[in-house]
Amino acid sequence: MPSDEEITRVRRLISRVKADLANTLTRLRRQNAHVKQLERRLSEALGEQAWRRATSTNYGSGSRSWNSRSSSPTAWEERDQELDAARAANRELMPQLNTAGRCPAPWQRAPRPIRQRC
């Protein structure tokens, strides 16, 4: 039978662990909010940058042809590559954003089954 002193120590330890857990959860919530804010700012910056690039290609003065900078095949290929990269990043990040907040915490997940070797 444990002594009163041991029981008191265990209770204090449990209280400290609970406090640490609460602090960790609070910190994770703050970090999650900060990450969302950074993602939003990055998205706005990339959108602004793409908008500037798209609107910087003006028609030539008085003619209906594109200016020489935008008419080169290389420029179009670069834009296509950038667009493909942006789409790939979007495909990669959107599922993460859509599932954010839905995942249980690691200690709430069901334990993995142990595979036994035969």
Summarize the SSE layout with pairings.
Blueprint: H1 4-56, H2 68-71, H3 73-99
- Averaged pLDDT: 78
Strand count, sense and closure of the main sheet?
none
Instruction: Using the alpha-carbon principal axes, give the shape.
Output: elongated
Based on DSSP secondary structure assignment, what is the total number of beta strands?
0
Structural class: mainly alpha
Strand content: under 5%
Stretches with pLDDT under 50, minimum 5 residues: 59-69
Number of helices, counting only DSSP H or I runs of 4 residues or more:
3
N→C terminal distance? 41 Å
* SSE run: HHH
* Radius of gyration (Å): 27 Å
What is the chains' assembly state? Answer: single chain
Helix content: over 70%
Model description:
There is one protein chain. The protein has 118 residues and is mostly helical. The chain has a domain at 1-50. The chain is 71% helix and 0% strand. The chain has helices spanning 4-56, 68-71, 73-99. The model is unreliable at 59-69 (pLDDT under 50).
